[in-house]
Amino acid sequence: MDVGVIGLGRMGRGMVQSLVRGGHRVRVWNRTASAADGLDGVTVARSAADAFTGDAAITMLADDAALRSVIVEGGLLDSGTRPGLHLSMSTISVALAQELTAIHERAGVPYIAAPVFGRPDVAQNGALNIVVAGDPDVIAKAQPLLDALGTKTWPFGTEPYRANAVKLAGNFMLIAAIEAMGEAAAFAEGHGVAGADLLDLLTNTLFASPVYKGYGASIAAGRYEPPGFGLRLGLKDIGLALAASGQAGVPMPFASVLRDNLIDAVSHGDGDKDLAALALVSARRSGR
Question: Which end of the chain, N or C, is less surrounded by CB atoms within 10 Å?
């Protein structure tokens, strides 16, 4: 397929490499043009509008503001040449997803929400788990792209915003797991037990899943750089989850605790570290 990719952060670059490896013709654009340096087999678009064409366009931008700036304020849906479909793969708010659905419908551009689970190395290996929602016929047209990017596509209905709700729920659970490990490790240390030993035991027995094992190993080793999933982005996602919970009238009291602890981490200079650095908050509060 002829696909344009807008957004070349660490996730976007990895996804582009998977698309090229899958035999797709890929055009790329990023605000900072140097982000495309070192990407083989791609055509660098002169503008976002030049990338927002072809069989499909993929956006993988950092947040609501970036996506709104490029797609809505940038007038891409008003341009003469538009893509056959738009795959929105960023982690964005439920409210913006609903707004984008309506805007795309008015513009006559099929819109699919397809946020992903996986870190940059997973994106580069084409092994993401992709959550999709939208018109099934449009999803079917995009399936060759989704197959190049991930190991499985998980459908969640015809309303695009539902995929974004699933993504935010998943990130809430992930951050809660990191908080739990940080508190448990600090508790163990307070009783003379090495936190690394506790995490080694639990992540190989009761909690032997990729999230616990991966982040647990980082916490045990004190390895927070370079970031896979940045802590500051985690704070953004918890904020989005809380906004969506208010919209739906669903209390999420622990999400508020996580938000405050993430703010604590950012205030202590850990915002650019990996999300696993959330564990430093519990360690610091316990005097360790």
Answer: C
What is 2-159's CATH number, 3.40.50.720, 3.30.70.1350, 3.40.50.410, 3.40.250.10? 3.40.50.720
What does the pLDDT look like over 65-114, one tens digit per residue? 999 999 999 999 998 889 999 999 999 999 999 999 999 999 999 999 99
The residue from 141, 152, 167, 236 that is catalytic is 167
How far is C-alpha 59 from the chain's CA centre?
12
Phi/psi of residue 225, each to 5°?
-140, 145
Q: Under 8 Å CB-to-CB from 267, ≥6 apart: which residues?
A: none
Residue 141 known to be catalytic: no
The single-letter DSSP state of residue 134 is: S
Residue recorded with tokens 């508020």: 256
- For 183-217, the pLDDT digits (tens) are 999 999 999 999 999 999 999 999 999 999 999 99
Residue corresponding to tokens 């035991």: 201
Number of H helices, E strands in the chain: 12, 9
Please give the DSSP secondary-structure letter assigned to residue 76: G
